[in-house]
Predict the structure.
Amino acid sequence: MTRKEYNKLVRDRIPEIIRQSGRECETFIMDEMQYKNVLKMKLIEESEEVVNAKPEELIKELADVFEVVDGIIEIYGLDKDSILEEQKKRKEKRGSFTNRTCLVWAESEELTFPLIVGAETSEGRERIREHPSLD
């Protein structure tokens, strides 16, 4: 059997499932700092899976995002009720996304970040490189 390198955070039962199928694997337990950093990276990974999911896969992929968020809440000792309260405050102050509003441009004295749609494409990355606020 060939060996495939992963070096990524997996759910707790994955090594057990691998071994039950007759395959071998190597794992280690991360220290708290590693775990905090890797959880944030895992959130990006799982969010990308939501972006690429077919409609019928959304529940499964969003469940994975929620699992990672729960892990972040736990390791940082955050309170879910406080997060929901902050969500409510931000919604009241800034609104939600239900209107489907896309900001095309806005006048600004100082641009603090590039507002470039399509940054995931080579054209978008080129537009970022050419953006005057990044000089």
In short: The two ends are 50 Å apart (CA to CA). Residues 119 and 125 are 5 Å apart (CA to CA). Residues 102-135 form one domain.
